[in-house]
Amino acid sequence: MSKVVLITNTSNDSNNNTTAADEDVAIAGFNQTLPTIYRCRAPIASLDCMEEFQSTAEQLCLQLTSGGLQGYTTPTSVSRQTSVVTPGLRYRNLGKSGLRVSSVGLGTWVTFGGNVSEEQAESVVVAAYDAGVNLFDISEAHSGTRAEIELGNILQKKNWKRHTYVVATKIYWNAKSEERGLSRKHIISSVQASLARLKLSYIDIVIVHKCDPMCPTEEIVRAMTHVISQGWVMYWGTSRWSPVEIMEAYTNCRQFNCITPIIEQTEYHIFCREKAELYLPELYNKIGIRISPCTACAILCVEGKK
Q: Domain NADP-dependent oxidoreductase: where (predicted)?
């Protein structure tokens, strides 16, 4: 015989969500703790259950104006223009770091690619920034160096305060090119080239896109620690790494006193749910790595494009 406790977000019992799961009951002479299912979903598949303490942008703005933020740092993007921040937009810390970004970021797969003009791309970036989005994700795998060049021009033209936005770029490993591995040489040269194209003094996040099976993980984590120590990069993460590869990188970081990754960018959509819902949440709880989902592949499948 078993029982479960369902936790819902009703207005009447919202304050009792945490207490219901802590009640012990005697079943067949044994004291057992009732398992908790968040919003009628299993805890491991409910990513929202990890974020119950988070506030929306609208709530943060109200707390800021009323002086209710005690010991809590509000992102600059929230206090920048409280009248235009999109209601419901959340800001979360990336992993165990203090870097706080919007829950919705602007990618560059379409923004800086295809037939989109520079004026249209600038309009999209400005609209996202004004709406409270402070994370801009670019990748040489999608639009080559064009994304970094155009985004750098926009940021230089608008002259926004550097601490109000976060730029994430990728180091792409391509098996078809001999020179595009994840060696220390390639990582350092890629970071320096990205800095020149973006016209920035530093990059907030460098994401290593795909793991290089021909390069030792120790060399990768040492190279990322080097570029961070030089002040060229603030944080680093991974993209499309398996949980085993992420755990190996984390273990090497601990063993050699290197800086650990804070983010894993992975596919998460209706056709690909297992990794993000079953395996990565466990890594998040164990080592504090943050999940950054992407859904572009699902869009292509739904539209029937190949």
A: 104-293
